[in-house]
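Trying the structure run again after the queue cleared.
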Amino acid sequence: MKRILPLFFFGAVLFAADFPQGSYKDQKNRDLKVDAQTQILLFSAEKGVSAKFHDHFEKHGQKWMDKHGIVYLADMTAVPQFVMDIFMKPKIKKYSYSMGIITNKAELPDIPLKRFHATLVIRGKDPIFIRNYTEMVAVLEANGMAVE
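Done. Tokens:
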């Protein structure tokens, strides 16, 4: 029995590492939490990739994202602060959904990235690289998570 307990404990640590939790700020400087309520985390580090999700998130809005436990984080650490403040923030503040904005590398979650892809993390599953909203829906449905 003593040998089994450390394995279970180790598994719990790995699970927590696989689904990072934390507090972030969205584009309107509101708190955005990745916590026990979060079932799906979408993480993107490229503008072109983010654009492939924007129309669908804009159409469905924040209530839809909350209903499905979706949190969307964007790595914007490569964007100069003056560009973010002058050009990007005014535009993205108008979005109907919350997008966690990460501008400090120290705040980046430990999530793998792949060029031209977003990373989809479903609680209890390995991260999956996806290219667009259609792929996200297909992966969610394959995991028994219907989204309309």
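The radius of gyration is 16 Å. Worth checking whether this holds up in the mutant runs.
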